[in-house]
UniProtKB/TrEMBL annotation:
Binding sites annotated in the UniProt record for substrate: K104, R254, N255
Function of the protein: Catalyzes the reduction of the glycolytic intermediate dihydroxyacetone phosphate (DHAP) to sn-glycerol 3-phosphate (G3P), the key precursor for phospholipid synthesis.
Record keyword Cytoplasm present: yes
Entry's family note: Belongs to the NAD-dependent glycerol-3-phosphate dehydrogenase family.
Main enzyme class: oxidoreductase
EC code: 1.1.1.94
Domain Glycerol-3-phosphate dehydrogenase NAD-dependent C-terminal: residue ranges: 179-319
Keywords: Cytoplasm, Lipid biosynthesis, Lipid metabolism, NAD, NADP, Nucleotide-binding, Oxidoreductase, Phospholipid biosynthesis, Phospholipid metabolism
Top-level lineage group: Bacteria
Protein's recorded name: Glycerol-3-phosphate dehydrogenase [NAD(P)+]
Pathway note: Membrane lipid metabolism; glycerophospholipid metabolism
Catalytic residue list: K190
Gene (UniProt): gpsA
């Protein structure tokens, strides 16, 4: 028995993987009509249209009942809701649990990664935290298209247990990586670059601009990540360049779609209101901007996007300012990524 907290597209897609692997899944959400749909029709049309859910997935509106007796909980709620949900979880639990974090972001102001927030909120009721991340659009996972992800934890035995829990030899392959910091930072920061990639596409700048943005964006990700203690090689893997590619190039990506609308001239508030789902890159841009300033790490793409999102800077002017930066050596710049 596994409980998934969060019945959006990603939580539901992972519930499908778990059900396909023979597990009974309790899928918790806060809207009664959505849970009724899952239980009666075996669909979740708002988030995964035209997908039939296995009957082993049962929707729960009562959090205490959803958590009763389970040892593993998948946390798939938006990052801004994580503390609130964990505080509710803590009051319901009667047993220690392993939490699998599948959300991607950094908390503004505290600059904490999701695993750190979980540890802080759960205390002694937490057995282990395992992070699952990688290039994985929920829409494609729900269609059982081949997907590969990574799990990481301070306790690699726990990571291997979660690897076994999710591994599906037909379509869902899971690797392990001991670099928890790198896995989380890569998953969070790629959303920033995806927003920027959407902006360049919205401006009509083409493939040259996007390739440059992704390459230089990856350097920014590795620069900040390595300063925080990550292994730079992690950013050459699934949770670095892998997640960056899929998020910057696919219409499934909310962050790319939001950036694309910004590039076409829409206001941020209108973009967010029309998306229908959370755009994690907006919140993460604020956190990464603050953290880069604190750590004295050069992140020009992040800085430019921050000016667009929070200071009202025109998107074309932001791109122009990036192109007008002083000349530098690519290899000298990459050498600043500490090994």
């Amino acid at each position: 028995m596994v409980t998934v907290l969060g019945a959006g597209s990603w939580g539901t897609a992972l519930a499908i993987v778990l059900a396909d692997n023979g597990h009974h899944v309790r899928l918790w959400g806060q809207r009664q009509e959505q849970m009724d749909e899952i239980n009666e029709k075996h669909t979740n049309e708002k988030y995964l249209p035209n997908i039939h859910l296995p009957e082993a997935i049962v929707g729960y509106i009562d959090l205490a009942k959803a958590l009763e007796g389970v040892g593993t909980v998948v946390l798939a709620v938006p990052t801004k809701a994580i503390r609130e949900v964990l505080q509710r979880v803590r009051t319901c639990l009667k047993q220690p649990i392993t939490i699998v974090s599948v959300s991607k972001g950094i908390e503004p102001d505290t600059h904490k990664r999701i695993s750190e927030i979980i540890e802080e909120e759960m205390g002694e009721q937490l057995q282990d935290v395992v992070v699952l991340s990688g290039p994985s659009h929920a829409e494609e996972v729900s269609l059982r298209h081949p997907t590969t992800v990574t799990v990481s934890s301070k306790n690699m035995e726990a990571a291997e247990r979660i690897q076994d829990l999710f591994m599906n030899h037909q379509y869902f392959r899971v690797y392990t990586n001991p670099d928890l910091i790198g896995v989380e930072i890569g998953g969070a920061l790629k959303n920033i670059i995806a927003l920027a990639a959407g902006i360049t596409d919205g401006l009509g700048y083409g493939d040259n601009a996007k390739a440059a943005l992704m390459t230089r964006g990856l350097a920014e990700m590795a620069r900040l990540g390595s300063r925080l203690g990550a292994n730079p090689l992690t950013f050459a893997g699934l949770t670095g360049i892998g997640d960056l590619i899929v998020t910057c190039t696919s219409v499934h990506s909310r962050n790319w779609r939001a950036g694309n609308l910004l590039g076409k001239g829409y206001a941020l508030d209108d973009v967010l209101a029309n998306m229908g789902m959370v755009v994690e890159g907006v919140r993460t841009t604020k956190a990464a901007y603050q953290l880069a300033k604190k750590m004295n790490v050069d992140m020009p793409i992040t800085n430019a996007l921050y000016d667009v999102l929070f200071n009202g800077k025109d998107v074309k002017s932001a791109v122009d300012s990036l192109m007008a930066r002083g000349k530098t050596s690519e290899l000298e710049d990459l050498a600043n990524i500490s090994l």
